[in-house]
Each structure stands twice: as C-alpha cells, then as structure tokens.
Amino acid sequence: MKKYFGLEKNVFYTGLTSFFTDTSTKMVYSVMPMFLMSIGATKTKIALIEGIAESTASLLKALSGLWSDKIGKNKPFMIFGYGLTAIITPVYALAGRPVHILWLRFIERIGKGVRTAPRDSLISGSVGKEKTGRNFGFHKAMDNSGAILGPLGAFAVLYFLPGNYATVFVLSAIPAVIGVLIIIFMIREAHNGSDERRKVSVRELPAKFWFYLAIIFVFSLGNSTDALLLVKTADTGIEKAYVPFIYMIFNTVSVIFAIPIGKLSDKKGRTVMIITGYLIYSAVYFLFGRFNNASIFIALFVLYGLYSAFADGSQKSLLSDIVSKDMKGTGFGIYHAIIGITLLPASVIAGYLYDNVNSNAPFYFGGAMALTAAVLMIIFTLKYRARSD
Predict the structure, then answer these.
(1) Around Cβ 271, how many Cβ atoms within 10 Å?
(2) CB-count burial class (<10 Å; 0-12, 13-18, 19+) for 387
(3) How far apart are CA 332 and CA 165, in angstroms?
(4) Where do the domains of the chain lie?
(5) Which of 164-168, 190-194, 208-212, 220-224 shows the lowest per-residue confidence on average (mean pLDDT)?
C-alpha cells in the first residue's frame, strides 16, 4: 500500500480528518466559555454542561467499539460520527440560552462517542505494534495542529468582530465538512479480525487492562474540562480576544513534541512517558491554583502542552499493546467511555469548588489526582515488569 511521508495511507488521512475536524471544534471550544457567560451561564453551569455532554454520550464509545469489532468495520462509524459534528457546529449560532448549548453539545458529543473508538481501532489495525507510538503520535500532532489553527481563526474573528461568536460558529463548519469528505473518499477499511461476525465479550480483556483503566479513572477524576483553565485565564483581566490565542500555545507545544515522544515511547516504553506526563500535569495544576497572573499562565500552557505530548498518545499506544488485535475496538471503546463518563463528576467537583470554595481549589484537586495516578502507574509498571522478567 502506498505510504505518505512514511506513514500508512489510513493513518495519514485519519490524521488529516482529525486536523480539519479539530480546527472546527477548537474554534468553537476556545470561545464557548466566554459565549456561555455572555448568555448568563455561571462557572458551575459551564463545567456542568461540558460534563453532561461528554459523559452522557460516552457509553456510545464503548458500544461503537464493541459493535465495530463484531462486524469488523470502522469506517461507517467514522462517517456518521464526524458527519454529526459537521451538521451541529453552525447551529450553535442560534443558541440564546445555556440550555440550548447543553442540548447541542450533547448531540454533537454523540457523534464523537460513535466515531472515537472505531477511529483508534482503525489506526491500530493499520500499523505494526513496533510503530504504534509513532503513528498515534502523528495522529495527536495532526489533531493538535487543528487545535492551533482553530483558536487562531477564532481569535481573528473576535479581534475584527468583537463579541461576534455566531460568525465563529458558522465559519467553523467549513473544515468539519472537509474532514467528512476525506473519510468518505480517501480512507479504506482496516480489518482487525475475521471478516465474519463473531461474539465479543469484555471477559476476553486481561486483568492488566482493568488495572490500567483504574489508573485512567483516577487521573480523569481530576482532569476536568479545559474550559476552567480558559475561565481562570480570562479572570485575570486579559482581553477576551486573546484567550483563544493563549489556548493555541498549549496545542502548538503538543504538536511539536507529539511525534518525537511517540517514537521515544516505542523505544523506551509507554509507562515512562505516561508517568512523566502525569507529573507535569500535576505541577501545572498546582501552579494554576497558586497564581493568578496571565504571564505565568502563558508559561503554564506551554507545560500543559508537554503533558499532552507525553501522555495522550502514549496512553493509547499502551492500550493497543495490552489488548489483542480482534478486541481493539472494544478496548478503545471502554477506555474512551471511562474518560468521558468520569468527566461529569470531575466537572461537577471542579465547578462546585470554583464557585463555592475559591478559584484555586479545583486546580489543587486536579493536581492531587494526577499525582496519585502517577504513583499508581509506577506500581503498574513494577508489577507487570516483574511478571515479564
């Protein structure tokens, strides 16, 4: 099969799809907290809307992964999931109350719930195990490249048209549609198992997988929506148009380091990268709690990008290593479902602490949970390294 820049065709075009889709979604995401506040939402409501939208759609991530393993196909789920995002995105412009955003976010997240596990399964099934880290690193880099362009586009709109969030939402639909067209015309199915329908049971997943998911749960409980990072940055008094630009810094750093760190994880091991990422995250959140200064927050967003580069791709690569070839959709589905479902209590806790304790409390909580997850990952590494020795 023809390769692009040394990458399998499916990996390259899946990355390109994520680039365009994330350009769209991050245009929206980078301005959504400010838009919600402009129509009367409190910090607690902002966190709650994000948590409900993610969590209630997250069961679909497990179901779509299980279903894709049963039928041996990933592409139909991707077309539906990315297509739903493209349809909903411009409709945000019509919202006049926070509850409207809640419903739209919920529907749009259904699309993400359907597409995510099959997409990761397709990437994993298209490459050999020895290059998983590099390929997931590439996908993360493309994903975050869109997350650079998206906030930059939002910044440009708000700079020239202050407060015109509707224009941001409408323009964001264009790259989302391009992403769907790439899936339809450029991506081919990657079979992870037999072409025949088969029974798939979560009992086939090893104990190592469940221990790993327990660690992901602990970390995710303190990993509330990034919207609160943007809210606290905006609370420093910085010009609102520059908030998306600051968020772009985080994604830029992640893009620069995602592929090199992915390659490094192929050589040095996934768990070392994940532990490093969790420790960086813990430090960033503790410092977000400690300070209230825009200049310091800019530096922290740089470190936050490093956390993303170290942890995100490595987490998926480790999961790909743990589960068997014909269970990857199921494994990725449960993994994404755990992260999504946990976002609801994480966001409720963070939003409550922000509004009812102080603006520092949710960040101290997130830092403590990340530190706990790092310790558990060290135990995980020692436990299974000892078994393999």
Answers:
(1) 21
(2) exposed
(3) 34
(4) 3-190+203-388
(5) 190-194
Q: Are 59 and 330 in contact (CB under 8 A)?
A: no
pLDDT tens column, 275-321: 999 999 999 999 999 999 989 999 999 999 999 999 989 999 999 99
Handedness of CA 332, 333, 338, 342 (dihedral sign): positive
Domain spanning 3-190+203-388: CATH superfamily: MFS general substrate transporter like domains (1.20.1250.20)
How far is 103 from 85, CA to CA, in rounded Å? 13
Q: Which residues are bridge partners to 7 per DSSP? A: 4
What proportion of the chain, given as a percentage, has pLDDT over 70? Answer: 95
The alpha carbon dihedral of 195, 199, 202, 207 has a sign of negative
Query: Tell me: the pLDDT tens digits for 63-85?
Result: 888 888 888 889 999 999 999 99
Determine the residue type at 203.
Answer: R
- The answer to whether 71 touches 360, Cβ cutoff 8 Å, is no
